[in-house]
Fold TetR family transcriptional regulator.
Amino acid sequence: MDSVKNRRGRPKATDLSYQDTQEALLQAGVIWLTQSGFQGTGLEPMLRSVQVPKGSFYHYFESKELFALAVLQRYRSFFEAKLDRYLLDETLPPLTRLRNFIESAKAGMEKYAFKRGCLVGNLEQEATVLPESIRQAVLDTYQSWQNKVADCLTLAQEQGLIDEHADVKALAHVFWVGWEGAVARARLTRSSSPLLQFEKFYLAGLPR
């Protein structure tokens, strides 16, 4: 009987399924890029962490750039589901929803001893050396997140919680600029203090 040789880099039939291995790579990618960013994530140590041979990586992703884009999309989907869980909670006033999101994110950073920040924020700090496709994907992600916060602030306007003439799109933009800065400083200081200060001054500074 003739045997069919595996293509170079293709996992054997006895290995994990294609989907299982791809999923393991994406999960590892989220962890590594959240901790180390694009430039700081080496393929070899990441692949060792999930026991995938380096030669097999390119069977799942054609390049590190395309891998990072897939990881970013995975992280974006996860994070937007989290945003929706808090910002669309109709049992609470809009500004309480925003505060609860901040508290949840703070707890997440504390859980991992401030070693993990925001994957998107990490990529933003590498903007000058990122492939254009990733830079644009980061911008698109921020725009989506800003829209969600703007919708929450619009509801706060409708309920008379902030000034009806306030520019909610600008306020949402400022939220993410300030939040990512607070996350970066929290990692640097290994402290929740920057997050708490941001929460205090952002919410207090909303036009009433």
In short: Residues 1-8 have pLDDT under 50 and may be disordered. The longest helix spans residues 132-158.
